[in-house]
């Protein structure tokens, strides 16, 4: 018999914490005859199992007995959420059995009421006994012979595991979901073997973690045992943060009135709700076939914040509706957004900007028009809704105060912005960013949301994140940047846009030494290779095993890319750490087309790797590749008498890996070995105290927040102006004859390390080669085109004083620093030096020296940097003017052999000057007094 609410009844309502089932009333109005457990179960077995007819043996209103504590407030991480939950509920968790101490307390209370029952019972039997004993004295009855009750749901009860049921279930979840009146069986793996069920009329079930969570949240109907996941259901809300779902037909019926089968609330106080398929509080993402309810349904899920269109059905009509945006462009109404269709390469998959604006405006207007019922969301729901592009739900949850930076530990600590960017939901990304989402938040793999958007080819999302300020140079745990990821998957549009920003290093290497060009080469992205090459990508950069792009083109067998690389002056006979040339790899991989291409370009087929194998020995005998190599070998042997010396690779890298690019040494002139009478060092060194002022407090620095391109940059003002352009080259108006001092930004500056006023400190970036010349011993040539104004290398050696230089016998490698401040110093590259010690003199130089300051500003010790004074083609020898003072001393010992038509120090030119009575034709060099290597000596 339903009990009318009264003050006394309200006062008797007993709240309980989640997982505790102590239903002992505060006072007993009437003590009924005590019954044994056997008698109680006999009465229960006689009751009808029909969920619509639930007559029981006691009358009461469970609303007086059932109140559940609210969920934990939002946390910024799943781990902190769990910790606070454990602290709050301690031993009273819904899925944990009562502790021994708790059992003894409850048992003592039970014995105090009954006085006779003192037997050991299973936990569930004790729970049933407590329910009956508590209810028996809670409400006075006018008919003691006819006692009826509404059953209390057991959604939060956990039963001992059963080996038989677990075996029958094949260790798979036994849950059945009700989705739009269609039933589907869950087949997820079971982690916990303890059983659960919503009521006694439903069989015990072994559930997966997802459905165990749904059971505890009362999402399983006690009448039929089906989980109410999607469709039209009844919903009871005893508190704003608690909801009970059940089918209308499964409501408990008592004396013609219907009640909630979970808590006993009258059905008239419940409401009918519609739950969309995309909505779930589970941590398991939904399938791609999720649908969205139409606006004609006029219903919304009030538990999770509503479906894609907000409207609540009450009294048979809609209370609020949301204007429907254009369906052809609105990705926010689709559960999976852009993933519902194929992704086109090179194009963004997001909706047009106008559609996004309309969608956002409609959502905001709907939110402003009506304050929705205060709902409580789990932070995990924001992650799921962001992943599926549910813009309105995301907005409601953000308004509700859920942390937009909440990270899912079970999902690699990714945030909602990660999954929104991964799916290309630009409008969701915008909402999250406006709510304070960290643009550069990293997951466990150090991936940022921008990297997810680049990898999945969402161009519009990439553009938005970059405009919002996302860092494009960030690296993940493997050292990959956004450019690497886009290059790997061949997303042409993404690569093109990243390069257009000017914020990426096109030659940046990951932890394996791979550049975007290498990734594009291996995966045969021809258009991308052409794009990167046109933007200045270096095709000769080596990876960790010293492979260049041509090695990977041979490995993949892409002849078109191999031809492009060879056309860009890629070294055909370069070898990796194993001694393999591209021909070795093409032969080993049976890439016949590449082998024929390399043979036509003159590849060395006699070159042996570290295993002593030639390309012919790397392939199967009598194969097509072997036959082609054999034929080429015989032809070359026949022509060997008519050809000159073959170029020999003496050293694959004279820098021994100390430079960012290797410097090979070759000889096609004589039998001279690679020079080894010096120590290669990448930076100038000292052998005696020089007292260089490196005190950071003595540095002048800039406070720029941009790329130091403004006139207010202090470092630029010290240099008269910033002389570098965005390509890290000197401006055309830079004076080569009388170059000013250049002060680059230093570690005391506030600007980024990637600002444009940092060039020389970035080190050697140009592909150079040490080779044997015909007339001048060793020389240096470039393996790539060098535009005018490009930094080539620094003159490196031992810093000594002028006094020390005067007593040294061999002064062929001295370069005066010409500081004009205090004592004089010079750099001697005789015993310590880099590739610059081999650069010869040229009367028509293509390089010029300039004094540059980087890590310190001690004017006595500038860096001597060589820049290109004109465009230099690949294969050209490098040279600079040694100065007239050098030839005044050394001209008595040898003559210049540069071969220029304007040579001033050749034997012919000197004889002409001696015969000429007007020596005024000579023009003094404007360069500092320098000395360098003697052309006739290899050392």
From TrEMBL:
Skewed-composition ranges (Polar residues): 292-310, 910-929
Record bears the keyword S-adenosyl-L-methionine: yes
Alphabetically ordered keywords of this record: ANK repeat, Chromatin regulator, Chromosome, Methyltransferase, S-adenosyl-L-methionine, Transferase
Ranges: ANK repeats: 412-444, 445-477, 478-502, 512-544, 578-610
InterPro entries: Ankyrin_rpt, Ankyrin_rpt-contain_sf, EHMT1/EHMT2, EHMT_CRR, Pre-SET_dom, SET_dom, SET_dom_sf
Entry's Gene Ontology cellular component terms: chromatin; nucleus
SUPFAM superfamilies for this protein: Ankyrin repeat, SET domain
Low complexity composition-biased segments: 930-939
Segments for region (Disordered): 287-354, 910-939
Span of domain Pre-SET: 700-763
Domain (SET): residue spans on this chain: 766-883
GO molecular function: histone H3K9 methyltransferase activity; p53 binding; zinc ion binding
Annotated compartments: Chromosome
Gene Ontology BP term (one): negative regulation of transcription by RNA polymerase II
PROSITE patterns: ANK_REP_REGION, ANK_REPEAT, PRE_SET, SET
PANTHER family: G9A, ISOFORM B (PTHR46307), HISTONE-LYSINE N-METHYLTRANSFERASE EHMT1 (PTHR46307:SF2)
Name listed for the protein in its UniProt record: Euchromatic histone-lysine N-methyltransferase 1b
Organism per entry: Sinocyclocheilus rhinocerous
């Amino acid at each position: 018999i339903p009990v009318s609410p009264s003050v006394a009844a309200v006062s008797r309502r007993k709240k309980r914490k989640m997982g505790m089932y102590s239903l002992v009333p505060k006072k007993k109005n009437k003590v009924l005859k005590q019954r044994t457990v056997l008698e109680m179960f006999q009465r229960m077995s006689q009751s009808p199992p029909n969920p619509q007819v639930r007559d029981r043996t006691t009358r009461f209103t469970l609303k007086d007995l059932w109140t559940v504590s609210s969920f934990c407030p939002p946390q910024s991480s799943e781990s902190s959420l769990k910790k606070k939950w454990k602290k709050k509920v301690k031993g009273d968790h819904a899925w944990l059995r009562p502790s021994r101490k708790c059992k003894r307390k409850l048992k003592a209370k039970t014995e105090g009421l009954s006085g006779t029952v003192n037997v050991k019972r299973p936990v569930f039997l004790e729970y049933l006994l407590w329910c009956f004993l508590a209810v028996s004295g809670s409400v006075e009855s006018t008919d003691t012979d006819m006692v009826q009750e509404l059953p209390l749901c057991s959604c939060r009860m956990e039963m001992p595991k059963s080996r038989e049921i677990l075996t029958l279930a094949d260790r798979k979840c036994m849950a059945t979901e009700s989705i739009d009146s269609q039933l589907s069986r869950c087949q997820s793996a079971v982690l916990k073997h303890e059983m659960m069920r919503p009521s006694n009329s439903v069989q015990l079930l072994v559930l997966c973690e997802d459905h165990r969570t749904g059971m505890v949240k009362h999402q399983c109907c006690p009448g039929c045992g089906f989980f109410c996941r999607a469709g039209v259901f009844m919903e009871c809300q005893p508190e704003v943060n608690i909801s009970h779902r059940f089918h209308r037909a499964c409501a408990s019926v008592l004396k013609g009135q219907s009640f909630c089968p979970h808590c006993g609330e009258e059905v008239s106080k419940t409401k009918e709700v519609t739950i969309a398929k995309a909505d779930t509080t589970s941590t398991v993402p939904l399938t791609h076939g999720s649908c969205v309810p139409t606006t004609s349904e006029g219903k919304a899920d009030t538990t999770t914040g509503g479906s894609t269109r907000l409207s609540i059905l009450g009294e048979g009509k809609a209370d609020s509706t949301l204007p429907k945006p254009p369906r052809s462009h609105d990705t926010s109404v689709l559960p999976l957004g852009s993933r519902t269709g194929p992704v086109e390469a090179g194009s963004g998959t997001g909706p047009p900007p106008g559609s996004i604006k309309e969608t956002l405006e409609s959502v905001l207007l709907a939110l402003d028009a009506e304050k929705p019922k205060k709902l409580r969301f789990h932070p995990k729901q924001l992650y799921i809704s962001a992943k599926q592009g549910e813009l309105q739900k995301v907005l409601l949850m953000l308004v509700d105060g859920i942390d937009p930076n909440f990270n899912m530990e079970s999902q690699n600590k990714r945030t909602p912005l990660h999954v929104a960017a991964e799916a290309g939901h630009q409008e969701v990304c915008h909402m999250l960013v406006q709510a304070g989402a960290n643009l550069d938040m990293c997951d466990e793999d150090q991936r940022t949301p921008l990297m997810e958007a680049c990898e999945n080819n969402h161009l519009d999302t990439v553009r938005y994140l970059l405009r919002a300020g996302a860092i494009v140079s960030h690296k993940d745990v493997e050292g990959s940047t956004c450019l690497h990821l886009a290059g790997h998957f061949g997303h042409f549009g993404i690569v093109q846009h990243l390069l257009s920003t000017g914020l990426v290093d096109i030659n940046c290497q990951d932890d394996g030494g791979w550049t975007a060009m290498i990734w594009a080469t291996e995966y045969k992205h021809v258009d991308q290779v052409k794009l990167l090459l046109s933007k200045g990508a270096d095709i000769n950069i080596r990876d960790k095993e010293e492979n260049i792009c041509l090695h990977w083109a041979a490995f993949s067998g892409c002849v078109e890319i191999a031809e492009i690389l060879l056309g860009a002056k890629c070294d055909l006979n370069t070898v990796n750490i194993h001694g393999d040339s591209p021909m070795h790899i093409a032969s080993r991989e049976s890439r016949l087309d590449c082998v024929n291409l390399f043979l036509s370009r003159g590849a060395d087929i006699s070159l042996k790797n570290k295993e002593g194998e030639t390309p012919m020995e790397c392939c199967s005998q009598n194969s097509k590749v072997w036959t082609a190599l054999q034929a080429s070998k015989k032809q070359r042997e026949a022509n060997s008498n008519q050809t000159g010396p073959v170029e020999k690779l003496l050293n694959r890298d004279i820098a021994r890996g100390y430079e960012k690019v290797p410097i090979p040494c070759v000889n096609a002139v004589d039998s001279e070995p690679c020079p080894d009478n010096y120590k290669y060092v990448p930076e100038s060194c000292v052998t005696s105290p020089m007292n260089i002022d490196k005190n950071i407090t003595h540095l002048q620095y800039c406070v720029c927040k941009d790329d130091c391109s403004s006139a207010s940059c202090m470092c630029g003002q010290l240099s008269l102006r910033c002389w570098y352009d965005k390509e890290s080259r000197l401006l055309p108006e830079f004076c080569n004859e009388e170059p000013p001092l250049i002060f680059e930004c230093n570690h005391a500056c506030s600007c980024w390390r990637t600002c444009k006023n940092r060039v020389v400190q970035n080190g050697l970036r140009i592909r150079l080669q040490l080779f044997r010349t015909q007339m001048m011993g060793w020389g240096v040539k470039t393996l790539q085109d060098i535009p005018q104004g490009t930094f080539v290398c620094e003159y490196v050696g031992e810093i000594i004083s002028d006094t020390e230089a005067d007593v040294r016998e061999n002064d062929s490698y001295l370069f005066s620093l010409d500081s004009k401040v205090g004592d004089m110093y010079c750099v001697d590259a005789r015993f310590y030096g880099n590739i610059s010690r081999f650069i010869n003199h040229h009367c028509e130089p293509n390089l010029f020296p300039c004094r540059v300051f980087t890590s310190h500003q001690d004017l006595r010790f500038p860096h001597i940097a060589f820049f290109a004074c004109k465009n230099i083609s690949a294969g050209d020898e490098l040279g600079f003017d040694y100065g007239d003072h050098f030839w005044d001393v050394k001209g008595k010992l040898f003559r210049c052999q540069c071969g220029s038509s304007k040579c001033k120090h050749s034997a012919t030119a000197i004889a002409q000057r001696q015969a000429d009575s007007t020596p005024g034709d000579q023009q003094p060099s404007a360069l500092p007094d320098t000395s360098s290597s003697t052309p006739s000596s290899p050392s």
